[in-house]
Amino acid sequence: MEKVCVLGAGSTKYGKLEDSISDITIQASVDAIESAGIEPKEIQAGYISNVFGVADKQVHLGPVVMSNLGISECPSLSIESACGSGSVSFREAFANVAAGFYDAVLVTGTEKVTHTGTDWTTTYFSYCSDFFYEGQAGASFPGLFASMARAYLNEFNATEEDLASVAVKNHENGVLNPKAHLRKKITIDDVMNSAVVASPLKLYDCCPFSDGASSVILCNEKFAKEHSKDHVKVIGSGRGGSPASLQGREHLTTIPSTKIAAEAAYKMAGITSKDVDFAEVHDCFTVAEVVDTEDLGFFKKGTGATAAQNGETKLNGSISINPSGGLKSKGHPIGATGVGQIAEVFEQLTGQSGERTVNDAKIGLTQNFGATGASCAVHIFQSV
Amino acid sequence: MSAKPEFIDAAKAGNILARKCVKCGELHLATVYFCKKCGSKGFSNSIIKGAGKVVTYTIMTVPPAGFEDLAPYAWVVMELDDSGIRISGFLPNIQKPEDLPIGMAVKVIGFDNRGIVLEKL
């Protein structure tokens, strides 16, 4: 197996964007190419992750991107795996570079939905659930995670305020990220007093609907060394699955796919959760970050909410969680998110993360899932 | 042929159509094709009374399309008595958490464009 590296990364701002989905996808790709210091013609394949291109009248994005990069002959494909599309796309690219099929590939995630409005997004996102049992019966994604939150609050010694502390922390980090969607500090009271979306989750427990695109260049180690650019090594990659519906799960306070993916990634990397300096995790809702940090092994089951409340997950706390601001503050353009997490890790490990830098970080982890964690991918990166 | 029409007919009668693996006895909802425990494909149908208890739920105040006039309502995960199978569904007219404590007895009363419909016992 070839050793695989991330050679460059780029992102648009996340938020409400004016440009079309094609334009933002191309912009992020160009940024990644320039960050990597390569020529487009050195790219041998493109992996585009996207869920709702149909909302902006463009699916089959790959050839549009490649044509605008001047490499229309370059093969590409689109990957949809709900909110986990980006990391799954990265994984497929990783596997192909590791197998020796390609020396260098482009991985770009993208989404453009804010122009459709909250009704459209709430409705269409619910199609990512096990629709027969969930979306069809009136459950939105806030509703599904609210059901997990209620189970968590019922099972463990945790409060809604503990969950709210996750949002407060991620907004603190997002203020330091020039590309974040929601760049403002908030308080526990702001969260507690925000409108209930699906009890017990309130508006400020939820990530925003965002537009945005992120891109990375992935290559083998030989290619990386020849280009003598800053790069980071991909040392672990794992994927996993869970029952598609919440009703199919024995426990509602853990996400099986995260545990499976993390175990595989830690094994490949030859490390444990204790060796991780910081992580970008899938905090689509405050409760999700709490569950993630437990499933990834950073905290014992049932203690993640208190750990967040105690400040352990703050920037340069005992383990920095979501230094980018996470989905909650940085934003959640669903097809882009998984790639955006990796772009953040690249910036952190190559000294390009400015005020939000995790001190002395050598190993970063990303965890990104689809729907209620029905699919998940975990990746681990190490500085050179 | 999908078992969904049969599953829906059972739900309309207040029941859940389950499938029992003929090899290992594991129970599943009738919408599966292979046993999750032993991988076998042979099942016998089993009609289970749609009564059980609330495992968790949410009260939806920002609903998806088609549910605008129904909010607030609950979306509930319930565990069926005896079998331990879990199903989820729509439960109308729930305003606040006090209306639906975890563990409360609920039952299936139908199936329509709101999926499986539940009510408090």
TrEMBL record, chain A:
Residues 245-382 form the Thiolase C-terminal domain. It comes from the Archaea. Gene3D superfamilies: 3.40.47.10. GO terms for biological process: isoprenoid biosynthetic process. The keyword Kinase does not apply. Coiled coil: none annotated. Residues 5-221 form the Thiolase N-terminal domain. Keywords: Isoprene biosynthesis. The keyword Hydrolase does not apply. Pfam families: Thiolase_C_1 (PF22691), Thiolase_N (PF00108). One of its GO terms (molecular function) is acyltransferase activity, transferring groups other than amino-acyl groups. This is Thiolase domain-containing protein. The lineage of its organism: Archaea, Nitrososphaerota, Marine Group I.
From TrEMBL, chain B:
Residues 9-43 form the ChsH2 rubredoxin-like zinc ribbon domain. InterPro entries: ChsH2_C, ChsH2_Znr, NA-bd_OB-fold, Thioester_dehydratase-like. Residues 49-108 form the ChsH2 C-terminal OB-fold domain. It holds the Pfam family zf-ChsH2. This is OB-fold domain-containing protein.
